């Protein structure tokens, strides 16, 4: 089993950790395959209802390990195949109705932006910073960056990051919409876990379906979205969890 990405499940929470700190957690071919496998496992397992995504070492992720592939005689076709594998994992994580919180520290560069934005809620340490760097090595966005970045910050700001050497601090990243909150670095792990535990202790299914509705909205019409909302809230209302919560709410409101 690959040690490039660690994985454990406990009490409904899947914990995924990028674990190549000596390479700034850049994703090589082995880690890419592991990422795709884990995405499928998370989607298929009924005992997983939320995901905590983080990284070992001083940096979160520098994207794909293109430098390693180049020194090993890689070609454009090999890079494309690696990107396709990573993207397969991204698609599954985006589509699964299980909320994901990411804890990010240090450098989030290149494709690392795409890995971060796979998460539905991002907590950043105060020393985190965000930068593109694709054009510095003559490459173009991958790892979902060309879609997920403008979704998060808007087209104009996405272009600022991709077409210049602009680097954002953690606070600037929050102001732009890249991350939800910024905390002291020594509190990062605890805060991200607290977000996940909030989901687990609440109406987890409802959180997951809210995530799915919003993620799916990008690729469908408003009318289709309304139909999906109606179906989803109807199905949610019939679940034992929702019935108990609605009944409790009704009892409180009539006191």
Automatic annotation (TrEMBL):
Zinc is among the record's keywords: no
Domain of life the protein comes from: Bacteria
Gene3D superfamilies assigned to the protein according to its UniProt record, in alphabetical order: 2-enoyl-CoA Hydratase, Chain A, domain 1 (3.90.226.10)
PROSITE patterns (alphabetical): ENOYL_COA_HYDRATASE
Keyword Metal-binding carried by entry: no
UniProt main location, coarse: other
Keyword entries, A-Z: Isomerase, Peroxisome
Location in the cell: Peroxisome
UniProt-recorded Gene Ontology molecular function terms: delta(3)-delta(2)-enoyl-CoA isomerase activity
Cross-referenced InterPro entries: ClpP/crotonase-like_dom_sf, ECH/Chromodomain_protein, Enoyl-CoA_hyd/isom_CS, Enoyl-CoA_hydra/iso
Family assignment from sequence similarity: Belongs to the enoyl-CoA hydratase/isomerase family.
Protein name from the UniProt record: Enoyl-CoA hydratase/isomerase family protein
């Amino acid at each position: 089993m690959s040690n490039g990405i660690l994985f454990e499940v406990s009490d409904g929470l899947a914990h995924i950790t990028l674990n190549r700190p000596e390479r700034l957690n850049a994703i090589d071919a082995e880690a890419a395959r592991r990422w795709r496998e884990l995405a499928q496992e998370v989607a298929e397992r009924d005992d997983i209802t939320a995901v905590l995504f983080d990284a070992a070492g001083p940096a979160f992720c520098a994207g794909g390990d293109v430098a390693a592939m180049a020194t090993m005689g890689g070609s454009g076709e090999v890079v494309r195949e690696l990107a396709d594998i990573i993207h397969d994992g991204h698609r599954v994580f985006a589509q699964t109705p299980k909320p994901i919180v990411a804890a990010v520290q240090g450098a989030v560069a290149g494709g690392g932006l795409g890995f971060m934005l796979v998460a539905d809620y991002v907590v950043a340490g105060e020393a985190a910073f965000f930068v593109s760097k694709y054009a510095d090595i003559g490459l173009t966005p991958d790892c979902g960056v060309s879609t997920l970045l403008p979704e998060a910050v808007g087209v104009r700001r996405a272009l600022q990051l991709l077409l210049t050497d602009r680097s954002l601090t953690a606070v600037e990243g929050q102001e732009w919409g890249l991350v939800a909150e910024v905390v002291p670095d020594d509190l990062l792990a605890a805060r991200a876990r607290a977000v996940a535990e909030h989901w687990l202790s609440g109406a987890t299914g409802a959180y997951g379906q809210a995530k799915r509705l919003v993620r799916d909205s990008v690729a469908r019409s408003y009318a289709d979205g309304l139909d999906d909302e109606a179906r989803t809230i109807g199905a949610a209302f019939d679940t034992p969890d929702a019935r108990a919560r609605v009944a409790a709410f009704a009892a409180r409101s009539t006191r």
